[in-house]
Amino acid sequence: MVGLFDVLRECLRSGEPAALATVVETSLDGAPIAEPLPALGAKILSRRDNATIGSLGNPDLDKAVLRDALGALETGRSATSHYGGHGERERSEVTVFLQVFLPPDRMVVLGAVDFTAALVKVAKVLGYRVTVCDARPTFATPERFPDADEVVVDWPHRYLAKVAPVLGPRDALCVLTHDHKFDVPAIVTALRTSVGYIGAMGSRHTHAGRVERLRAEGVDEVQLARVMAPIGIDLGANTPEETAVSICAEIIALRTGTPATSLRSGSGPIHRRSGVWGEGL
Amino acid sequence: MKELLDEIARWQAAGRRVALARVVAVNGSGPRDPGAAMGVSEDGEVAGSVSGGCVEGAVVAEALEVLASGEPRLCTFGYSDDEAFSVGLTCGGIIRVFVEPLDQW
After folding, report:
1. CB–CB of A100 and B35 under 8 A?
2. What is this model's ipTM?
3. B42 — alpha (psi -120 to 50), left (phi > 0) or beta?
4. In B, what residues contact A, Cβ < 8 A?
5. Chain A: nearest CA to B92, how far in angstroms?
6. Which end of chain A is more exposed for a tag (fewer CB within 10 A), N or C?
7. What is the pLDDT of residues A183-201, one digit of tens each?
């Protein structure tokens, strides 16, 4: 028999989004009438196309939780919620942990250079699914980037146009080509996507020239502000590996909306989370 | 969770029972987000983590009890003046960890 864990394992391995609801606490305190409550550990798994496996023990509770699962898949946030035994929202006899499993965030690295190899390594440590793209078949080979999930020989802007629909706010694009003939069309294409991070390598001088060309292509100031260039945070990085850390640090800081400074220069909790976690538990 | 799959598969292939512990809530400063998971085999092998190392030892003990009893449980770990919280997070946060036998999935 294929159990729920086997199905979840398949989802995790194939990168299929899924939401798993588990009853983690039940209490009859404050319930209007004593009624049977779901078993601790009862589960329902929601997959794409509304396919489900398992049950929390009550069809109305399942329905309410599955509705919330759709919302959780949108936000990507795992959290607990309270329900009545029949899914009533104003009640709290049943505490359900809704855990969301999403495919890994993507990083696209344009340009098959030495800095790329180091960046791919650090990005893999962070859990990204990494694609390297370069128009030059001599340089864009899997042998040179063994850690990359995918190495694509194509014009960067053409490749970006192909993957544009799947690039979202948690994904990152690093333009390491620092050659205007590759970067400018690529950045113009990237600015039409909702990709969360666009960084472009090159000195301030190189970037000034790039900005001129981007403006000539019709890119406005608001769009230009999305481009992080010169790429990375200022930590004095020199080697490809140090630069990779600097780039990834900038990606994290931008995603969390945090100015990257040393923790000892600040105050307050060091684990900042957007929104309220662990609400009500 | 994904990082635990190979280890769990190895344990299960060897016929060993497995408990799964997951962070379901974090209040205040806590090192890992909800969803952080740790697997514990019946002979006490561990994969993954639920904190920065502060409560893992206690979670192993809970996991072995859960495997013995077959009853899932919700555990609370955190800083408190209350003696009941014998295992604390040095960071001052509170985490709730749900521990269950994987063979009931």
Report:
1. yes
2. 0.89
3. alpha
4. 1-2, 5, 9, 22, 24-31, 33-35, 71-74, 91, 93-96, 98, 100, 102, 104-105
5. 10
6. N
7. 999 999 999 999 999 999 9
